[in-house]
Amino acid sequence: MLKVLEQMSKKQPIRFLVCVRNDGYPEALELRKLYRAIPDATAARVDMVRVVDESWDDYLYPKGFFAPVRLTPPARKALAAAR
């Protein structure tokens, strides 16, 4: 997974989302927590989003569970480097 994330970051900017709902997933998603998004065109067509959790596994969740976050370049770089 880490290798995939490194390759993706070279191709496009890293995107982060904030969790605004966790209905049915309270143990998996923390409200108000930032999650790294992975582009997934197939998921987007069915209103889902792929995010990476703190274990570096990626999962699909409803798009409405997250809101986009605008970060400054230094903040985005610091979050992307965090593990």
Written account of the structure:
By secondary structure, the protein is an alpha+beta fold. It has one domain: Roll (SH3 type barrels). Helices cover 29% and strands 28% of the residues. The protein is built from 3 helices and 5 strands; from the N terminus they run αββαβββα. The chain has a 5-stranded antiparallel beta sheet. A hairpin with a 5-residue loop joins strand 3 and strand 4 (58-62). The longest helix has 10 residues, at 2-11. The radius of gyration is 12 Å and the shape is globular. The two termini are 12 Å apart. The relative contact order is 0.23.
Strand content: 25-35%
SS class: alpha+beta
Q: Determine and state the CATH class.
A: Mainly Beta
The H/E string reads HEEHEEEH
CATH level-3 fold name = SH3 type barrels
What would you say the CATH architecture is? Answer: Roll
- Low-pLDDT parts are 1-9
CATH superfamily: SH3 Domains
Number of strands: 5
Main sheet attributes: strand count, strand direction, barrel closure: 5 strands, antiparallel
Q: How would you sum up the global shape?
A: globular
Q: Please estimate the helix content.
A: 25-40%
In which order are the strands of the major sheet placed? 4-3-2-1-5
SS summary, helix count = 3
Q: Quick check: average pLDDT?
A: 85
Q: What is the count of structural domains?
A: 1
Radius of gyration: 12 Å
Distance between the termini: 12 Å
Keywords:
83 residues; 5-stranded antiparallel β-sheet; alpha+beta; disordered N terminus; SH3 type barrels; globular
Describe the secondary structure blueprint for this structure.
Layout: H1 2-11, E1 15-19, E2 34-38, H2 41-45, E3 48-52, E4 58-62, E5 66-68, H3 73-81
Antiparallel strand pairs: 1-2, 1-5, 2-3, 3-4
